[in-house]
Design brief:
38% of the residues lie in helices and 0% in strands. It is mainly alpha-helical.
Amino acid sequence: MPRQSWPHYLKDRIPDKRFDRRNPRLPREEQLPLECGPHKRKETIEQGFKRFRDKHPEVELRLVALARKAKRRGRKVGIGALWEVMRWSFWMDDDVEEFKLNNNYRSRYARLLMAQYPDLAGFFETRRLTSKGVSDG
């Protein structure tokens, strides 16, 4: 049996006169509208970070402990690796209430740790922030 090309499943949904194997899309006016419009944030990442930090101070403390442990061992690790270790440790810890760790806050925590804890200054590599209304001082 010959192998069908990838848009074979569209043949039943699109009238033959409009089906084009090279471009199986419907004309724009016939496309179904999206059920949800473009995502509009209620708050900026910076505002969400500040709110999250106030609500969960244990995140900062755990990150500091993990970063210092890595530094003592002579390892330079990224905030992403520490974030995932922390996520796993919170998940395994029965004493901590369940909450989600938003990946958008990782770079904010990296900057915070380097600014607040002199022994961690320069420990993480950071890029320039591109969010609107945030200075990368």
